[in-house]
């Protein structure tokens, strides 16, 4: 194991424990990726809803007298 790898792990463990303010915690580092996934899922859901809305808006309403 390279000594710099061990040093990095120790520094990260210290940041995760709140002992360091100069590094992001592991949770803070993972947050942007999680938020990007969430945005991607929400955009996909919005597209499905938009498509469904357009589909149902184009069909005549069978309950309305016409």
Largest sheet: none
Provide the low-confidence segments as ranges.
none
Q: Portion of residues in helices?
A: over 70%
Radius of gyration: 25 Å
Mean pLDDT score, rounded? 93
Distance between the termini: 78 Å
Multimeric status of the protein: single chain
| Gross geometry | rod-shaped
Number of helices: 2
Q: Helices and strands: which structural class?
A: mainly alpha
Task: Give the SSE order as H and E letters.
Answer: HH
Share of β-strand residues: under 5%
Q: How many E strands?
A: 0
Describe the protein's architecture and organization.
The chain is mostly helical and 66 residues long. The protein has a domain at 25-58. 71% of the residues lie in helices and 0% in strands. The protein has helices at 3-16, 26-58. The radius of gyration is 25 Å and the shape is rod-shaped. It starts with a helix and ends in an 8-residue tail after the last helix. 0% of the residues are buried.
List keywords for this structure.
2 helices; 66 residues; 0% strand; single chain; 71% helix; mainly alpha
Blueprint (SSEs and pairs):
Elements: H1 3-16, H2 26-58
């Amino acid at each position: 194991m390279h000594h710099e790898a061990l040093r990095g792990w120790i520094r990260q463990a210290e940041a995760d424990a709140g002992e360091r303010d100069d590094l992001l915690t592991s949770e803070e580092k993972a947050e942007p990726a999680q938020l990007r996934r969430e945005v991607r899922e929400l955009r996909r859901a919005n597209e499905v809803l938009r498509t469904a809305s357009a589909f149902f808006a184009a069909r005549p309403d069978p309950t309305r007298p016409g």
